[in-house]
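Honest question from a wet-lab person: if I give you the sequences of every part of a complex, can you actually get the arrangement of the whole thing, not just the pieces? Trying it with mine:
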Amino acid sequence: MSELWEVLSEHFPELSSGFWVTVRLVLISFAIAMVVGTAVAALRIAPLRPLNWIGGVYVEVFRNTPLLVLLFISFAGLRRAGVPIDAWVAGTASLGLYTAAYVAEALRSGVFAVGKGQIEASLSLGLDYPRTMRYVILPQAFRTVIPHLGSLTIAMIKNSAIVGVSLLALPDLLHQARLVNSRTFATNETFFWAAAGYLMLTLLATVAVRRLEARYAIHR
Amino acid sequence: MGYLFDPQNWEWLTTDNNLRFLLEGFLVNLQIAAIAMVFSLVFGLLLALGRLAKLRPLSITAGVWIDVWRNLPLIFIILYLALALPAPWKDLYESNVPGFLPEALQSGRVFAGILGLVLYNSAVIAEIMRAGILSLDRGQGEAAASLGLSYPQQLRYVILPQGLRRMVPATVSQLITLNKDTTLVSIIAIQEVMRHGRILSSGFAAFTGADVQAPLLQVFIFIGALFVVTNYALSRVSRRLEVRERKRTGGTAGPVIGLEDQTALATEAR
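Yes, you can. This is the full assembly:
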């Protein structure tokens, strides 16, 4: 038991720096996922077939490709091809674009949940398609899918560990835990603290989402 | 763009037995996925029933178990098990693994990988199944009980057939995720498609006497395409089945439905 605290006190700097890398990774990727996801959802429900098709291809490609493969393509692949991409750019873009496909699907279902009559009413009031989107559909769609976006955020926290393991230049919590473990051989203790870090983040996200849900969510 | 589509950079696919080598690796992924899927579904159902049990200690234990495993990163679990799993467990696996499985699956490390996949996915699937069972009207269980069915009989004939059917789409999308997650076992040095891809593009071509260099970018785009095709097919089949089932039973979707079938029904309705 004492060894448990020993590992934490001796290696706190490494573990906490890893923790913050994970947090930063998740926050940046979350922003990318929301922006791209919203754009793709808009494409998927646009009143123009070719746009629907492009959005659909995006979703199917990014949702069905393993994140690890995306990371290989975007970092090592591009570098070998002569594109000097930064590890942070490759990591956050991979995680963000991957999650964006799920965000787009969630928003699309949220849009379908907005009554058809509302869209017709908005159009007949003279709002054009982008404005209908901006003022009528999306605000409601976002509020309907808060619980779903929450579980995507939690999935993103977990998936950030894949980024840290495959990109050496991104020393996240799991990466640091492996380093500490290779020096101390205290596997159970080191991984216990890393697990505590991840559970703390996922728990925090769960509580935050529950709060948001209580305040804003529309239950249909 | 020119680099990406340059036929020279795709020549590796048709030379030597590169394609065969990649597909052999991919088969290992599919086999790991199949094994992990079966165990995850079985344990997921048991965990869900445990969490719903009337016996408090059992439901609390199952609940904590589920919440811990489902909130940890899968790659974390796999790495931890690979480091910490006692050697006798791995030996037990190695001496009992069926001989017809490929060489990559004979190593004891595979046990850590599969165990990790099952621990994580059974916890996630347990939550999906629990939601399905809870979404059923209470009256269903009560009616079955008042007809004189015992608890196991209620589960077997009334609750599970309805509850689980509702959760088919969510379960299938989790199984697709599982299929993608099999690539994570490459981190613990299991020779599957990611490792095969790295060997092909490692630049050793000059030493092995191969004439054609396989560029990393193209190799991994091809691997990604393998997954896209497989997973897309899996999701189409399940959607088809789901819509047909809905039509056959004439049932409408309950309050708790997965995203997939919401969209499936929406597109069907158009």
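Two things worth pointing out. Chain A touches chain B through 46 residues (CB under 8 Å). The two ends of chain A are 49 Å apart (CA to CA).
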